[in-house]
Structure formats: C-alpha cells, structure tokens
Specification:
This protein is mainly α. The protein has helices at about 5-25, 35-45, 50-60, 60-75, 95-115, 120-140, and strands spanning about 50, 80, 90-95.
Length: about 140
C-alpha cells in the first residue's frame, strides 16, 4: 500500500471513528448522529438555513434532510419559518429546546475533542489542520 493510500484510508477511517465515538457519547440525548449533526449545523449557521442549504452543508440529498427535519420539528427542536421573499423557501430555526440540546451536544463534543487532542503537539496539530483544510478545499473544487 502506498503512502497516499495509507493516508486516504486513515483520513476516512479516522473521520468515521470520530463521528461514531461522539455518537456513542451523545446517545443519551435522544437523537442520533444525523439529528445532532443537523442541530449543530443549524445552530452554527450565521443566518437561517433553507432545507437545501442544510442538505448541502451536511453533504446529503434533499429528501434525506426533509425526513430528518420532519422528525426534529415533531420533537420540538426545530421550526420551519417561511421566507419573507420567497413562499417556496422555509428557513430552519432552533427552538429553545433545540438550542438547549445544541448546548449539551457542544459541551460533550468540546470535551471529547480535548480528550483526543490534549497531548498532540500544537505545532503538529496546526500542520495537520492546514493539510486537511488544503485537501478539503481541493476536493471541493475538483
């Protein structure tokens, strides 16, 4: 196996293992990975997202987002608010309960991140972050 193959395998497997480990830590919150990723993405957005914008950020198809949003709306965690400029567009907004859940998700994710990265040399971490951001940009432009 070439170094490039080892790297791409490690990148994929690490991202997957990270998400699965965090999902195990968040299982008591009553939402799975798709739910907490949706809530976190909506919470971190600088302006309200439409369902298609959310699908794009999550890297999934629109129908997948529709069913997830339906579940989160039914659970009282998200609201669909109509656009003032386009009746076809509904923006997604966290409810108070959704915001509270996001705070719990964020606290757990922050603790998990610190736990995993605490003994990595800061210079090495900065270098790895730069490499990953460069690769992400190249992949998005490809």
């Amino acid at each position: 196996m070439t170094l490039e193959e080892r790297f791409s395998r490690a990148l994929h497997n690490t991202a997957r293992a990270w998400r699965l480990a965090l999902d195990r830590r968040l299982k008591d919150l009553g939402v799975g990975q798709a739910g907490w990723m949706t809530i976190a993405t909506v919470a971190k957005a600088t302006e309200p997202l439409s369902q298609s914008e959310l699908a794009n950020r999550l890297g999934v198809e629109n129908p997948t987002v529709v069913s997830m949003v339906d579940r989160l709306v039914k659970a009282g965690l998200l609201l669909r608010e109509p656009s003032t400029s386009d009746r076809r567009i509904k923006y997604l907004v966290l409810t108070d309960a959704g915001q509270q859940l996001y705070q719990r998700v964020r606290a757990e994710a922050d603790a998990f991140r610190i736990e995993l990265l605490h003994d990595i040399d800061p210079t090495l971490l900065a270098t790895m972050t730069n490499v990953l951001e460069t690769l992400q940009s190249r992949a998005e432009q490809a």
